[in-house]
Design a protein that fits this description.
The complex is a heterodimer. By secondary structure, chain A is mainly alpha-helical. A two-stranded antiparallel sheet of chain A has the order 1-2. Chain A is built from eight helices and two strands, in the order E-E-H-H-H-H-H-H-H-H. Helices cover 65% and strands 2% of the residues of chain A. By secondary structure, chain B is mainly alpha-helical. Chain B is built from two helices and no strands. The longest helix of chain B has 40 residues. Chain B is rod-shaped, with a radius of gyration of 18 Å. The relative contact order of chain B is 0.17. The chains are: A mainly alpha, B mainly alpha. At the A-B interface, helix 2, helix 6 and helix 8 of A face helix 2 of B.
């Protein structure tokens, strides 16, 4: 119990009303490496990232292998997930040529979905998307794709139309161009990464504080007596947030995929 | 002012800053979702399109609140 809940060591249940760790950053760091290969420490987070990748590959492989006339129940569920990403997100947002981007969007959707759901998976209880590495890499890959598509579809006029928009009155053109330049090439990838990261950090923090406080207070009932009743509302509130976080995990995976598709669409048809 | 008092004041100010950063996006998300519900009620057959656009609007509006949340931890 002491190892699982970082807040428990520094929590004085007879004085405080909620257990918080001294430094919240402790909740997101796994200092002890399981083992090291050369300079690379193989921590719990790295292990979870490999686990998420393996889970995604396993779901897609076992769900879609072979040609079946009648799909299995699991196969039908995976197929509906794939066709949701393909028809609703890729083709629905980007247009008919959007089918080309389905593999990328499906990879992002599945990895972020599994990574987010690790937050509410018992014994794992850590969303890998709550470390900045994964959202940032996804945002950078989306950035590279939409910039590359923009230049290859429209040539240099992609950049020129951005900084010198023809539809704006001449006096304001430099200002609008500057705002567009910053917002497209800098703020888009930044907010894409920060949105996912901050949502998962906030959810992990709330769950940790509430559930850990509940467990520690109720567990200390022998020492503090009637004060242990404080743990009950914390725990009940934590369980409510737990259900809410399942919704947030699925919604954030959808939003990251949707926004990636929207950014690619704005490069394919820049006039809109 | 002692160092501890300055530290306490700093974290309190960061909390107030995050609270201020949450006001605008809170109002914005309310407007977005309210209008999306109105659109869905008036035109139920276009509910799917309204829902997608609603999520997009929420995602763009939410960005400012999230920046405030991150700055709260950095400060």
């Amino acid at each position: 119990m002491e190892d699982l809940i970082l807040a428990s060591s520094s929590c004085d249940t007879s004085e405080e009303i909620i257990c918080a760790p001294e430094n919240v950053l402790e909740l997101f760091k796994f200092k002890d490496a399981l083992f090291s290969i050369g300079p690379f420490d193989f921590t719990r987070l790295v292990f979870l990232m490999f686990l998420a990748t393996a889970v995604v590959i396993a779901i897609l492989y076992f769900g879609l292998r072979g040609n079946r006339i009648i799909p299995t129940k699991f196969g039908a569920a995976v197929e509906s997930l794939v066709s949701f990403v393909k028809d609703d997100i890729a083709i629905g947002i980007i247009g008919p040529e959007g089918a080309r981007y389905t593999p990328y969007l499906l990879s992002v959707f599945m990895l972020v979905l599994v990574g987010n759901l690790f937050e509410v998976t018992p014994l794992i209880n850590f969303p890998i998307t709550a470390s900045m590495a994964l959202p940032l890499i996804i945002a950078v890959m989306t950035w590279v794709i939409f910039v590359f598509v923009g230049f290859s579809k429209n040539g240099v006029s992609y950049l020129i139309d951005t900084v010198w928009p023809k539809s704006v009155p001449i006096g304001l053109r430099w200002l609008v161009g500057l705002i567009e330049l910053v917002s497209i090439f800098l703020l888009r990838p930044l907010t894409l990464a920060v949105r996912l990261f901050a949502n998962m950090v906030a959810g992990h923090l709330m769950l940790t504080l509430l559930l850990a406080s509940g467990v520690i207070f109720i567990g200390d009932v022998g020492d503090i007596g009637a004060r242990a009743i404080l743990g009950v509302p914390w725990f009940v509130f934590g369980l409510g947030i737990f259900v809410f976080e399942i919704v947030v995990a699925v919604l954030q995976a959808y939003i990251v995929t949707l926004l990636s598709a929207v950014y690619v669409q704005s490069s394919v048809h820049p006039e809109h | 002012m002692t160092l501890e008092a300055a530290e306490a004041l700093k974290s309190a100010l960061a909390l107030v800053g995050y609270g201020l950063a949450a006001i605008g996006p809170g109002i914005g998300i309310g407007i977005v979702v309210g209008n999306a519900i109105q659109a869905m009620a008036r035109q139920p057959e276009a509910a799917g399109m309204a829902r997608t656009t609603m999520f997009l609007g929420i995602a763009f509006t939410e960005a400012l609140a999230l920046l405030g949340f991150v700055l709260f931890f950095i400060a």
